[in-house]
Design goal:
The structure is a homodimer. With about 350 residues, chain A is an alpha/beta fold. Chain A has 13 helices and eleven strands. The longest helix of chain A has 26 residues. Chains A and B meet through helix 9, helix 10 and helix 11 of A and helix 9, helix 10 and helix 11 of B.
């Protein structure tokens, strides 16, 4: 058996805290016999939720107690000053100390980014970390990665190129071919888009080691045309949030219609298998777990409102990145590209 | 009977040209007894499609012949130099000459914007025209307006404020209350967003005559929280395109699932009324017709791939704007706000 993978979990983050995180952690331990977890948070509460967990799982679990946690209203900067004993800070600090291989948190995104950057530093060649989200592509049955989705706004061309490199590294583990990289834009034509997008496009075209395929428009994101889509964090953030909004509106409309009269109630009951298929293919829980890429260590951010299944998938994402050694691979890719990018930008 | 409303139609624009536009025009004439239309395009083709149109419709129809049209590959600037006899240019020119009250085109958006700006000029106080799209809000059963969706990128704060004013004027005609105006952002907190968004938020808060309600996140666009959502044209463009992408993916997944086996085929057949309800509520055709706001004249842009029903709704949008006298109302609103905005920005 290979060396145990070790991941720290911020138990106190997210809308539901330990009630969601502890069961998700146990599920991950059951799925991965070579995984051990450090649960960082309120020990009595964790012990209570662990209950009579089987010894074979319990022995791969360590608890690090802290009663301090931060919430979504905490200003990110405050974490570095006043919350060094919070579950989030302690979990990231364990990555820095190499006591664990990665950490997962459903807490305040801004605080997690700032803590990550402060404690882990960026990979040489990467100016700032980015948040990468994975998107279901039902037709091709694999995922597409979109970055940045909110860590950086007013992004300049060199940073967009960094995103392309980081995305390519992450996508390589789930993508059956060399990841195709697209640049999000408002049209296909060369003259479309901001100055920074046009500069980034010119640079990406010159990087032979990246499989850059050109501009991608909003409607093509879910088409499976690209495996990595690069964009400014503002655009990426509104794309993932508005897409989620559309899915939830459609579900609501169908539910509302389904309850309207007995005929529609019957129809809804009869069409349940279809809706189940749909849910399976675009289930947000399956795609939970956004990585903070570009740091010298692995941090995965779970959605704050994730339930057990969703948080489990965020841990899965961390496990994959540990196996793939993502930060080292980003570093070596950046180093090998340095002469090329220098010339291209 | 009130004076006839008169609208010029670019018959040659869009993916399907006259085959879609002529039947849509006839439907509009049938629906509005006080409407007359000028069809600008290839006369023989138009006559052929008109066939044996009833005299009561035919007498409210004029044809202006031109064999020249532009396509989506035409560079916008070329229109002003080489295509002054194109159906699009002639239709917009009729608005300038006050021969018609508005025009509708499904042609090249960039060319339409440039022609509109060149021939009609902007309303005093408006620096550049914006494209406004209307979005279905199934829960509240009315529409929400999003602007800009692609005419302006790298938008500055004063322009975002102009968008808010123009959106409020347009929304007033379909909105049962004073339009609630939101600013698209990546979070609710004051410190989130670009410098320009923060400046625009500060200015909008000071304008008492606008019902500004604060930041709106991507997932809230379809919630009915706001009647007008203001954003940079890049963000707006990716939002509407990616949302349309999600809807089409969901339809495809359900169709694909529905064909998988006999049980699912039966389910799909039985659940048809539900899907029909869904289609009715979020049907893109019903929401076709994006206005080019801020010009001294009314131009409505139909989606290039609109079918007859969609193009009909674009004409409907033009009819509404003629009735509401939108350009004049924007001008007077800008004039009355001038002292306030001067102080706010």
């Amino acid at each position: 058996m290979s060396r145990l993978k070790r991941i720290a979990i911020d138990v106190m983050g997210g809308d539901f805290g330990p009630t969601v995180v502890v069961p998700a952690a146990l599920k991950s331990l059951a799925v991965h016999p070579d995984l051990s977890l450090v649960l960082v948070g309120d020990q009595p509460r964790i012990e209570e939720l662990l209950g009579h967990t089987a010894t074979r799982l319990r022995q791969r679990l360590e608890i690090v107690h802290t009663a301090v946690s931060i919430d979504d209203n905490t200003r990110p900067e405050a974490v570095l000053r006043k919350y060094k004993d919070s579950s989030m800070y302690l979990a990231v600090d364990m990555v820095r100390d190499a006591r664990v291989d990665a950490c997962v948190s459903a807490g305040n995104t801004g605080a997690l980014l700032l803590t990550g950057r402060h404690l882990l530093k960026t990979v040489p060649g990467i100016s700032k970390p980015a948040i990468i989200a994975s998107i279901p592509v039902p037709t091709s049955n694999h995922r597409c990665y979109l970055l940045d989705v909110g860590a950086n706004i007013d992004t300049q061309a060199p940073q967009l190129v960094e995103f392309a490199v980081m995305g390519a590294v992450l996508a390589a583990s789930t993508c059956p071919h060399t990841p195709r990289i697209g640049l999000l834009n408002i049209g296909q034509e060369e003259h479309k888009g901001t100055v920074q997008i046009k500069l980034a496009a010119q640079a990406l075209e010159k990087l032979d080691s990246l499989n850059y395929i050109g501009f991608i428009e909003g409607n093509e994101i879910f088409d499976g045309k690209a495996d990595v889509i690069v964009c400014d964090g503002f655009a990426g953030n509104v794309v993932i949030k508005s897409s989620a909004g559309v899915v939830s509106v459609i579900k609501n409309v169908m539910q509302e219609c389904a309850g309207r009269d007995w005929l529609r109630r019957l129809c809804a009951w009869l069409s349940a298998p279809l809706l189940l298929d749909l849910n399976t293919q675009i289930d947000p829980a399956r795609f939970n777990g956004a990585s903070l890429l570009g740091l010298q260590g692995i941090i995965v951010k779970s959605h704050g409102n994730a339930r057990t299944e969703g948080f489990f998938h965020a841990i899965e994402q961390a496990v994959r990145e540990v196996m793939d050694n993502v930060p080292d691979r980003i570093a070596s890719r950046m180093a090998s590209l340095a002469p090329e990018t220098g010339a291209a930008l």
